[in-house]
Amino acid sequence: MMEGNSVNRMITNRTIQLKTVDVNAKKPTAEQTTASRYASGMFSSDNGYTFDLTNETPTNFNVFQYLQARVPGLQITGDINNPQLSWRGGAPGVFLDQMPVDIQSVANIPMADVALIKVFRPPFMGGFGGANGAIAVWTRRGGDSRPDPNAKKLELLKKGGYRIIKEFYAPDYSVKKAQHELPDKRLTLFWSPSLVVDTISHTTRMIFYNNDQTKNFRVVVESMDQYGRVGRVEKYF
């Protein structure tokens, strides 16, 4: 029994030296990362050219103008809004978000809305019309959306709210001052943002000086209770 325990300890404590192992890995490029988020199925093939526009701001008019002279062998001629495409003797298929579309559908997409372009060498087995290769375009998703650089930015405007208290001139004629000799033509004789009302008599007292011509008074009282209900009374005296 003791001999068996000794053998088990020898096996447990035995150190096994492994040969040196080299692990080689490549960090995915930005194009590969974007393509992995957008392209799927046959569209994830690397047999072609990939253009990641999520971090670009192209000045080209549309996708086909962007691709001119960027893909060897791909010929784009004629009207840029409805061009003639030719690659290795035939017209490549055109796909938008992995669905076959006509050329004009892609030509009308603003470059600011384009996230990824992949140009596949012939033959492309991802859909119909791929015998002569394919041009696949993906539009931006929420996380890759970028603001239009030509859009007018919002202007910051500070607007006075209800807490801004407007003060009206209220002279104190009990104190002699030189300006008190001038004609008093005030239209607002008394204004207060907060009046203290007696809780028993439900009255308040106001003291103000009249101007030089007013004989009738227009009194406007506006209020709000603890429940948010508003009230307004207007009377003439």
Features:
4 helices; 9 strands; alpha+beta; elongated; 237 residues; two-stranded antiparallel ribbon
Task: Describe this structure as you would to a colleague.
This protein has helices at 2-12, 30-38, 63-67, 103-107; strands at 48-52, 75-77, 84-86, 93-96, 99-100, 114-120, 134-139, 218-224, 230-236. The protein is α+β, with helices and mostly antiparallel strands. A five-stranded mixed β-sheet has the order 1-6-7-4-5. It has a two-stranded antiparallel ribbon with strand order 2-3. The model has no long low-confidence stretch (mean pLDDT 83).
**Strand percentage:** 15-25%
Structural class: alpha+beta
Order of helices and strands: HHEHEEEEHEEEE
Total strands: 9
Cα-based radius of gyration, to the nearest Å: 41 Å
Strand order of the largest sheet: 1-6-7-4-5
**Total helix count?**
4
Helicity level, as a percent range? 10-25%
Summarize model confidence as the mean pLDDT: 83
| Main β sheet profile | 5 strands, mixed
